[in-house]
Write a structure and sequence with these properties.
This protein is of the alpha/beta class. It has one domain (about 10-145): Alpha-Beta Horseshoe (Leucine-rich repeat, LRR (right-handed beta-alpha superhelix)). The protein has helices spanning about 105-120, 120-130, 140-145; strands at about 10-15, 30-40, 55-60, 90-95, 100, 135. Keywords: Leucine-rich repeat, Repeat.
């Protein structure tokens, strides 16, 4: 019921937090939003979660120091646009997560290519990706990070 039109930054943290409901962010709105989920026990971010973000134009998504092993915000959407409502993933931080680099995250290569072409903050994005440890299948990490 709160008016969240002027909300620009949301930070969620908690060492006992294990799950985020799909509709958790459906009431958020505005031009830009900086969404951080950090220092939790969350191991999966449901891809449908991003389909409920309907009125944000640019999303800065920071997911450091969780237990996330796989992440695909584009599973039910059109990459590199975050969702069918036109929300663009403007920035991404996955550092400190046990990401498994396999075919499930090939969307990341498309997103990186899009970011290089359209983003003004590529340096920040590149630094965050460099800090992301990736237990890769042979050749996958190289193809993702060689963009």
């Amino acid at each position: 019921m709160a008016d969240v039109r002027l909300l620009r930054k949301v930070t969620i943290r908690g060492k006992n937090l294990k799950r985020i409901n799909i509709g958790a962010f459906e009431k958020l709105r505005g031009y830009r939003l900086d969404l951080t989920i950090t220092n939790t026990q969350i191991d999966t971010i449901p891809s449908l979660l991003f389909n409920t973000i309907t009125t944000i134009s640019f999303l800065k998504l920071s997911l450091p120091n969780n237990k996330i092993h796989s992440f695909n915000p584009f599973l039910h959407t059109k990459a590199p646009i975050l969702n069918q409502h036109g929300t663009i993933l403007d920035s991404l931080d996955l550092q400190g997560n046990p990401i498994i680099c396999d075919c499930k995250i090939l969307w990341l290569k498309q997103w990186i290519e899009y970011s290089v072409e359209h983003s003004t903050n590529w340096h920040e994005i590149n630094e965050a990706l460099d800090k992301t440890e990736c237990d890769a299948m042979p050749g996958i990490q190289d193809s993702l990070l060689s963009v």
